[in-house]
Design brief:
Layout lengths: L2 E5 L5 E2 L15 E5 L6 H9 L29 E3 L4 H4 L3 E6 L9 H14 L4 E5 L3 H13 L2 E7 L5 H9 L3 E5 L3 H11 L7 E2 L5 H7 L1 H9 L7 E5 L4 H16 L7 E7 L4 H8 L25 H11 L2 E5 L1 H15 L5 H15 L8 E6 L7 H7 L10 H8 L1
Helix pairs in contact: 3-4, 3-7, 4-5, 7-9, 8-9, 9-11, 12-13
This protein binds ligand AN7.
Ligand AN7 binds next to helix 4, helix 9 and helix 13.
Length: about 400
């Protein structure tokens, strides 16, 4: 299968075998292209069915030549039907794609298995990323498996405890930057120019997004070779929504489906430059200088992939909205208490988004909706301890305990 890189704005093409993250002429984002015409839809599906359910099942549509890939068993997550949540969310055919089941507990693993494999193909000895938490946890794990060095830059004091612990445990060099994610990302981009010091694995890297697009293929298969009406995704740096849309549009391009879903992006109110652009009808996104939200994973004011996200949302006929922190916590609690599924606050944002999108008429109650729950709830125990009811406490005495639970 042939593939290459193409600038989304000026169309300039670049070799996939050199270190290049953005267009060397106009500076814009790059897409990976394939020779789609050479794929036969029937034999493609037959091939899929012979491989395990997960990212590498879709190898024909991944930009990797090596036989040996750096894998921890990513993807293949469940699509759970959520009937008890109907009364709360308003959508009658609601599914949650539970990305917390990935090896390091988030969707980032889909991207990193491809991204770190690519890093090895390019001969990298070191990888780097800036992160609000999950990217660093995932990259650290895949770098460990690959046997290469990993550097992560995280905003000091603003990443969830579990994620910080993961990056440390997997052996990354963790640098807490005294600033926010956007500042940390600028540093990581500077430090990785041309790949000299290290290879960059933030979502500006188009190879990483190729791994993440497999979520769309999985949903398509899980619904019985059909696309849903709507897909709702939490948006931070805006890579994932762009990747998932690329997945669905490729399925249409290959001729596997006529229908593609409308893509909805959900941001936290204190960090919502893309939702704001839609609300105000702007052509460009105005960055938020001091983003703030309880959902630290999406506490991002200057999303690098904003242009790809706008393209995805517009092409698909979707929209972007924002939800409040209290709305996010209510969604997290509802999913945990009505469906037994614990997700981190950023992931709950997409569910809070479903409710609002139904209320505001963007999504019809009868439509089939897939909500992407991007990360595991155990990543961020502190938020639960802080925002929820406090546990009861009693002396080790029968009467006292009985009094409390009756
Ligand atoms: C749980 O880890 O940006 O819109 O540095 O961890 O593709 O950025 C995390 C993002 C949603 C947003 N949900 O995805 C990072 C980072 C969870 C996340 C997002 C993130 P993008």
């Amino acid at each position: 299968m042939r593939y290459g890189l193409r600038c989304m704005s000026c169309g300039a093409e670049f070799s996939p075998d050199e270190v290049v993250y953005t267009c060397e002429f106009c500076g814009d984002l790059l897409d990976v292209w394939y020779n789609y015409q050479s794929l036969n839809p029937d034999s493609l599906i037959q091939g899929w069915r012979m491989k395990p359910f997960g990212v590498w099942r879709y190898r024909e549509l991944l930009p990797i030549r090596s036989r040996q890939v750096v894998s921890l068993g990513e993807g293949g997550t469940k699509l759970r039907r959520c009937d008890r949540l109907i009364s709360w969310a308003g959508a009658k055919n609601l599914f949650v794609k539970y990305e917390g089941e990935n090896p390091t507990g988030s969707f980032k693993d889909r991207g990193m298995t491809v991204g770190v494999t690519k890093a090895l193909e390019l001969g990298a000895k070191k990888v780097i990323c800036a992160s609000t938490g999950n990217t660093s946890a995932s990259l650290a794990a895949y770098a460990a498996k690959a046997g290469i060095e990993c550097i992560v830059l995280v905003p000091a004091g603003k990443i969830a405890l579990g994620k910080l612990a993961q990056a440390i445990a997997y052996g990354a060099k963790v640098v807490q930057v005294e600033g926010n994610f956007d500042e940390a990302l600028k540093l990581a981009i500077e430090l990785s120019k041309k790949g000299e010091l290290a290879y960059l694995l933030n979502s500006v890297n188009p190879f990483r997004l190729e791994g993440q697009k497999t979520l769309a293929y999985e949903v398509f298969e899980q619904l019985g070779m059909r696309a849903p009406d709507a897909v709702v995704v939490p948006v931070g740096n805006a890579g994932n929504i762009s990747a998932i849309w690329k997945g669905f549009s490729e399925l249409a391009r290959i001729g596997l489906t006529d229908e593609t879903p409308r893509m909805y992006g959900v941001q936290a109110s204190g960090a919502a430059p893309i939702a704001h652009a839609f609300k105000e009808g702007l052509e460009e996104v105005r960055f938020v200088e001091n983003p703030e939200t309880v959902a630290t994973a999406i506490r991002i004011g200057a999303p690098v992939n904003w242009k790809k996200a706008i393209r995805a949302i517009k092409e698909s006929g979707g929209w972007a909205i924002d939800v409040t922190d209290s709305g996010i916590i209510e969604a997290q609690k509802s999913l945990a208490r009505m469906e037994g599924m614990l997700v981190e606050p950023a992931s709950a944002a997409s569910l809070a988004g479903v409710r609002k999108l139904v209320q505001e008429g963007y999504i019809d109650r009868d439509e089939e909706v897939v909500c992407v729950a991007t990360g595991h709830g155990l990543k961020d125990p502190n938020t639960i301890i802080e925002w929820y009811e406090k546990p009861l406490q009693a002396a080790a005495n029968l009467e006292e305990v009985r009094k409390l639970i009756e």
